[in-house]
TrEMBL record:
It holds the Pfam family AAA_21. It comes from Bosea eneae. InterPro entries: ATPase_AAA_core, P-loop_NTPase. Signal peptide: none annotated. Residues 49-358 form the ATPase AAA-type core domain. It comes from the Bacteria. This is ATP/GTP-binding protein.
Amino acid sequence: MLYRLEIENFSSIRDPQVLDLTIAPNVPDPDCRFAPVFPGSELRAPKVVALFGANASGKTTVLRALEFLFTLVRDSAQRTVPGFPCERFNDDASRSRPIRMAVELGGAMNLSHDVLRRMEAGEDVEYGVYRYELVLEVVDGLPQRILTEALRQKPKGQGKWQRVFERSEDGQVKDSKTFPLSGFHHLLNTLRPNVSVISSFALFQHPAASLFVEEARKAFFLVGNANLVQDKSVIDFLGASPDLLPLLNKELNRIDVGVEGMRFEPTPNGPQPMFKHSGLELEMPWALESHGTRSFIRMFPALAITLRRGGLCVIDEFDLAIHPLVLPEITRWFYDCLNKNPLDAQLWFTCHSASLLDDLNKEEIVLCEKDRDGRTNVYSLMDVKVRRDDNHYRKYLSGVYGGVPKLG
């Protein structure tokens, strides 16, 4: 469960922003909206995190920071060009300031194949929290190399942070029993400046690095241009995943008036979806189906797979062409800890549909606001004086919470 995000000098975020989503043990949770940061932890975090704010306020920037970190950990060894796919804040003072980011999340300690085997066998293992920190050097306005990188753990969430590995400015890497370098020291000679230690070592089957990469692959991102998912890629994926089609049809039948189901018609160009509508003689092809139905289908695989195996699902413009009454239905999937979400999967999204605010608790609401100098501020509604019985919809639109457009 991800509970903390720190960002500095990244895109529209200039000054350090710290988003701490931990929830105290005495906060009531009758709807199963929160989950322990790790099994047995008293601290909890929301399963649903909704980012609201005016256009260009920096909501997508927050999601991009998350995506950047997870992608760097799991995929950076595959990059063939120098530098990084990110930008610093666009002012002169930030041209040479480093980009800093960090995340904290719960998980099994001392991750190894033996620990995974014991978890799968239902045996007790030690849990705690991890902290991944990254600092990028910026030269003449461009991020050039990883200055420092570190992964730390805190067993049971107590005591001081313990090193898993640390990468220093001179490229040296300190290891630990959890992340030993024995037999892999030679990889330090070829560690590229824009590649994470985890991704680089996983490429050569380092046991711990490989497991951390697999954990990072449990995060799905539909952010920015990636949210404009190519129809063919989604159709091909669903066509090759027959176990997902019954689940999709069940939900389509519930939320889409008139749609009885979808099936695939084999063609020389691959599977083509056809929709059966109540009262219509002929099935409807994908191109003639409603924009809202297609938007729902595009995000469904990421939602369904995340709920099935746990992890993180991040969606930009969650409400794009989706009816406001359908949005809370999707968020309720993540509250269903008995059936749909037994592994405490987490959903982060940006949204403009203010009506959804009445279906969210203050712990689930994050606001983004940009000042006159173009700097994004990020804060949880927990940081604002809010009564639990407040009408979030009315107070947000009236500007009490901030994060709304200033017109005129």
